[in-house]
């Protein structure tokens, strides 16, 4: 265990880094499962060491920063957010340890992970690629494809959490996360063939294992939604959004119970039950993330004052959260989310839409955008500019 050492640093900077590292650890943990990659799993454990140092820094700063009871209460809320990020990182490291111990995950799970709302894929950059030799910042991959590069394999080495200055080279293997609609765009930009459309199997027999895997994917989707909404509730001081996070956590408990039953049923028909353990670990992983989200909104529910610096924390992290009104002259008005293609046009993931005072969480592709709607979305800063331009019917350069 590395000895922890205190270094003077602002609590804001510590919390920004904790948020970024926790989200990266989750993405890498799922990637390690999907691609059966122990190197990525080991990087998750390396990041845990960084998180431990940050947790220590956060606790010291919170103690030093409170001089009056009001400051102590506000600081306790910030510390609770920090501890939630720690819970998420601990859950990711637990999954990484399971992978390193050769815990098996069903093939059906790895086949189904790309069907999640935010998918993870890997692609090799070809000689014909239009992005060969260009930096991520120059190419603006996320805001043009909806896919965020979380790691790059170059020869025998890895580049984790690459920044805008990272240059993409021929032969690199990119691991990217984003909306499924962006896979073809990324394939085209990396010089790979676009996937052929696949026919759906309408008469497929759904087994207990199939249902368990589908439930895991839904739990993954809801847990990631819960975290996004949790930060949104603090960002915009919304009790209504906080209540939705609590409701999602309750649904996760019910889903976990169902999963246990289906796994037990499946174990009667599978000779090697070792593969089912991975499903239970995945369920615990998603449930832990949801619990952390609930812990974040507990600050709102208990009416603990959120200091103004919290907005800076969310706004200065790698993945920001924004709230944008749709102008009546916006080209988005009257379009469904599928038709608007916000994921691939802006790289932003829509978490919720408020229409006529009513919230729609996790809106579907057929939901229609109306003038006056309020969109809460997460993504990169340049993607926010594109979404704002569409919503306000302005040129990006004019913002």
Give the helix/strand layout.
Layout: H1 11-34, H2 38-65, H3 69-100, H4 107-112, E1 118-124, H5 136-139, H6 141-145, E2 147-154, E3 157-160, E4 173-179, H7 183-189, H8 208-235, H9 239-267, H10 274-301, H11 309-315, E5 320-325, H12 337-340, H13 342-346, E6 349-355, E7 358-361, E8 374-379, H14 381-392
Antiparallel strand pairs: 1-4, 2-3, 2-4, 5-8, 6-7, 6-8
Helix pairs in contact: 1-2, 1-3, 1-11, 2-3, 3-10, 8-9, 8-10, 9-10
Organism: Methanoplanus endosymbiosus
GO biological process, one term: potassium ion transport
InterPro entries: AAE_transporter, PhoU-like_sf, PhoU_dom, RCK_C, RCK_C_sf
For the largest beta-sheet, the strand count, sense and barrel status come to: 4 strands, antiparallel
Mass-distribution shape: globular
What is the oligomeric state here? single chain
Averaged pLDDT, please? 86
Total count of strands: 8
Strand content: 5-15%
- What is the distance, rounded to the nearest whole angstrom, between the alpha carbons of the first and last residues? 48 Å
Q: Spatial order of the strands in the main sheet?
A: 1-4-2-3
Count of DSSP H/I helices: 14
As a percent range, the share of helical residues equals 40-55%
Radius of gyration: 21 Å
Determine the structural class based on helices, strands and strand pairing.
alpha+beta
H/E series, N to C? HHHHEHHEEEHHHHHEHHEEEH
What are the low-pLDDT stretches, counting only 5+ consecutive residues below 50? Answer: 197-206
